[in-house]
Specification:
There is one protein chain. With 279 residues, this protein is mostly helical. It is built from nine helices and no strands. The N terminus is likely disordered.
Length: 279
């Protein structure tokens, strides 16, 4: 008999937080896997629609997806549009790779260089996107202008702190800032998921999605990056500081958010990306 072994009740109390943590982490991994699948679908769309038409010299095709995006004679605006759309593929593909544990451990040099390329690219893409919103005009009015500006500010802020904490070798904090950057940089992807989920849900239930569309558009212009960032903040704080009950509760919430993410991916793929690729 091992006299140093803790009583069974104590062992159970010590093991329960670990199980709660593992369960919560597992739900986060499930969400990430679903999100990566969705981002890969987005990458196929960007490559098949924007890159392919650009290689063919058919920039006019972009008008189907982005009104006023490519305007004859608008050198600055067209340059910004081309940079924004073509560089976006690097963000969509490179971002998720930064959070794959196997790559982080086995391919550290690639991880570092991919991170640098990602950061520079997300700065360029968000900067050109903000320029287009203000110079060309958005379809959402003041709310979209304000949301796009705030999102861009957050991207630059998160990017700088991601770089700084990496240089300082504060790896735990670095990972958090890097994931915040990833979420903020994926705002356009989240936007499409939210907008098409709204449309598909209303159509499925037989309601007119246009009734409250302007209000939802204004709200989701901010929600596309605020909601994911808020969910992440709640996740890691719950993981480190909350009771096991709250951890299990947030696990359920995260699975629900995963379901919503999956619905959004399916909706935007069926209703937007496939028709544009095949049309």
């Amino acid at each position: 008999m091992d006299v140093d072994a803790p009583p069974k009740a104590q062992q159970a109390s010590q093991g329960e937080p670990t199980r709660a943590n593992n369960t919560l982490k597992r739900s986060a991994k499930v969400w990430f896997i679903v999100a990566v699948i969705g981002q890969l679908m987005f990458a196929v769309y960007v490559a098949g629609f924007y890159w392919l038409s650009a290689l063919q010299g058919n920039f006019a095709k972009w008008e189907k997806a982005t009104p006023k995006g490519f305007v004859e004679g608008d050198v600055m605006g067209n340059t910004a549009m081309i940079m924004h759309m073509l560089l976006a593929l690097i963000i969509i593909v490179g971002g998720p790779l930064q959070f794959v544990p196997h790559i982080q451990r086995k391919y550290r040099k690639f991880h570092r260089w991919n991170g640098r390329v990602y950061m520079i690219t997300v700065f360029l893409v968000s900067g050109t996107g903000l320029y287009m919103v203000w110079a060309k005009g958005g379809i959402g009015g003041p709310f979209q202008y304000a949301a796009s500006t705030l999102n861009t500010i957050l991207i630059f802020w998160f990017g700088i702190l991601t770089w700084r904490t990496a240089v300082q070798r504060k790896l735990k904090v670095h990972k958090r800032w890097a994931f915040r950057l990833f979420l903020a940089g994926s705002g356009v992807w989240f936007a499409r998921l939210g907008f098409m989920s709204w449309v598909m849900t209303h159509v499925t239930l037989g309601y007119d999605y246009n009734t409250y569309w302007p209000h939802f558009y204004n709200i989701w212009s901010f929600g596309q990056f605020v909601v994911p960032l808020l969910a992440f903040e709640l996740y890691w704080r719950t993981l480190e500081k909350s009771s096991k009950t709250r951890k299990y509760a947030f696990t359920g919430l995260l699975y629900f958010l995963t379901l919503l993410t999956a619905i959004g991916i399916i909706s935007v793929t069926i209703a937007m990306w496939i028709p544009r690729l095949t049309g």
